[in-house]
Specification:
There is one protein chain. The protein is of the alpha+beta class and 458 residues long. The chain folds into three domains: 91 residues, Uridine Diphospho-n-acetylenolpyruvylglucosamine Reductase, domain 2 (2-Layer Sandwich), CATH 3.30.43.10; 115 residues, Uridine Diphospho-n-acetylenolpyruvylglucosamine Reductase, domain 3 (2-Layer Sandwich), CATH 3.30.465; 186 residues, FAD-linked oxidases, C-terminal domain (Vanillyl-alcohol Oxidase, Chain A, domain 3), CATH 3.40.462.10. Helices cover 36% and strands 19% of the residues. The chain is built from 16 helices and 16 strands. The strands form three sheets. A seven-stranded antiparallel beta sheet has the order 13-10-12-11-15-16-14, with helices on both faces. A five-stranded antiparallel beta sheet has the order 5-6-9-7-8. A hairpin with a 5-residue loop joins strand 7 and strand 8. Helix 8 packs antiparallel against helix 10, helix 8 packs antiparallel against helix 13 and helix 13 runs antiparallel to helix 14. 53% of the residues are buried. Bound molecules: flavin-adenine dinucleotide.
């Protein structure tokens, strides 16, 4: 069997027409990697830009008959290697599947997986509604990718993560069958909650072809607070303390290396003596907001903040949050970046950020730390020069040590980005043999030929 020779059959089988199949090597190259930087990627055979569920079904049937791997792909902004190609695969892109229906009375959106998160937010806002999950990449990542990774973001601390908004899914299985799971109702306990099984499954169990999402009334305007610290562990303690006194809408963290990278790009006048910045926001109204902000200021001051300021000017507040959102691209300008996603219980945050600083020093490696601190979820960004093999080895060692530290603190190796390929070696240490065995049996039941995103997630 020569799959290359049979691509003509795939082109002919695609209901939207042969134009959906891309084989030009230069074009295919653009679908080979995601944004993970350090993750390995193979060479795809071709790309299918599916126009609808029927294209996805045809692709999977063709691939199953030939044992050709299929790598589902949204917008390719993933940070763990999940959408990276494997050798000889079909990359199945959902970028053309962008249909959108908003049902205001039901407070529901039904969307194609390729629709961008930001596009959904905008469309919902036009109806006076809100789709809360807000990965920093919301302007460039797809809803299908968000569901497949169970994406989090800045406001998830108060408004939860993607899975909490998924009411229904259409999923195409490896054998080409399309399933409908859940629906438009807010509550639904008919049978196992299989939509949750597919949420966060990183393209290994099925291809998500439609998503029904819960929308909510918008939150109020924010009062945004920044607190600067001369010591990272004090900032970590402040986060734990804020969490015990308030339920902020945002609670983010940036260390000195992240602040320096953002300052180099945005020239915001951030003080280079600051070792960490905590960014928080309240979206309560009136006296309740003042009370919540005062509680957060008090928590930061009690932990020794060297500067605390807050604003209820929405433009200023958004600029501060934009600086936080810019941190990953700003750090990416410094070199090759291995992006971590560790999460720890709320009372272990100071130990995590202090420990990471120690690892960076011991390995003589830059680790810029940002995080959705209020969730205990941090993204240490390990930076190295790809041309320097020795620096690369030190960076990989540091990456491993941060992961081990997260686990030693009772945490997780990934809070929102997924395992992909980058974190696979640590999964067994976190979940244990029995859970891994059950995971494999679920995979075998749904994808017995193992064609869906092989080598990813476990
Ligand atoms: C600057 C920056 C900031 C970021 N900030 C955040 C953040 O705050 N929070 C956060 O959670 N993430 C963040 N991310 C990571 C990334 O944007 C998210 O993981 C996002 O959900 C990926 O969406 P995507 O469309 O790009 O998916 P892709 O990268 O294309 O794919 C991700 C995974 O989902 C699978 N997949 C994609 N579409 C489907 C589908 N339709 N069916 C089945 N499987 C599918 C892929 O196979 C892959 O395993 C950030 C990324 C960047 C670059």
């Amino acid at each position: 069997m020569n799959p290359l020779g049979e691509l003509g059959e795939l082109a002919a089988a695609l209901p939207s027409g042969p134009g959906a199949l891309l084989t030009d090597p230069d074009v295919v190259e653009g679908y080979r990697v995601d944004r993970s930087g350090g993750a390995e990627a193979g060479r795809p055979l071709a790309v299918v830009r599916a126009a609808g569920t029927a294209d996805v079904q045809a692709t999977l049937r063709w691939a199953g008959a030939r044992r050709v791997p299929v790598v589902p792909r949204g917008a390719g902004t993933g940070l763990s290697g999940g959408a990276c190609a494997v050798d000889g695969c079909i990359v199945l892109s959902t970028e053309r599947m962008r249909h959108l229906e908003i049902d205001p009375p039901a407070q529901v959106a039904v969307v194609g997986p390729g629709l961008l998160n930001g596009e959904l937010k905008q469309a919902a806002a036009a109806h006076g509604l809100w789709y809360p999950p807000d990965p920093s990449s919301f302007e460039i990542c797809s809803i299908g990718g968000n569901v497949a990774t169970n994406a989090g973001g800045l406001c998830c601390l108060k408004y939860w993560v993607t899975t909490d908004y998924v009411l229904g899914l259409e999923v195409v299985l490896a054998d080409g069958r399309a399933l409908r799971l859940g629906g438009r109702t807010v509550k639904d306990v008919a049978g196992y909650d299989l939509k949750r099984l597919f949420t966060g499954s990183e393209g290994t169990l099925g291809v998500i072809t439609e998503v029904t999402l819960r929308l909510v009334p918008p939150a109020g305007p924010k009062t945004t607070l920044v607190a600067a610290f001369a010591d990272v562990t004090a900032a970590g303690r402040a986060v734990t303390s804020v969490r015990s006194r308030a339920r902020p809408a945002v609670l983010e963290f940036m260390d000195a290396a992240a602040l320096a990278a953002v300052e180099a790009q945005l020239h915001m006048g951030l003080d280079p003596s600051w070792r960490a910045l905590v960014l928080a926001a309240s979206d309560l109204a009136g006296p309740a907001a003042a009370e919540e902000v005062a509680a957060m200021v008090g928590a930061c001051e009690a932990e020794g903040a060297v500067e605390v300021a807050f604003t209820d000017d929405p433009v200023e507040g958004e600029q501060l949050l934009a600086a936080r959102r810019m941190a990953i691209p700003a750090v990416e300008r410094l070199g090759t970046v291995l992006i971590e996603d560790v999460g720890v219980p709320l009372d272990r945050i100071a130990e995590l950020v202090g420990g990471i600083a120690g690892i960076a020093e011991a390995r003589a490696t830059t680790i810029a730390v940002i995080g959705h601190a209020g969730d205990g979820n941090f993204h240490p960004l390990v930076v190295f020069d790809a041309a320097d093999a020795e620096a690369g080895a030190r960076a990989r060692q540091a990456f491993a040590e941060v992961m081990d530290l997260g686990l030693a603190l009772g945490g997780t190796i990934t809070g929102e980005h997924g395992i992909g390929t980058l974190k696979r070696p640590w999964l067994r240490a976190q979940v244990g043999d029995d859970v891994l065995d059950l995971t494999r049996r679920i995979k075998e039941a749904l994808d017995p030929l193992g064609i869906l995103n092989p080598g990813k997630a476990f």
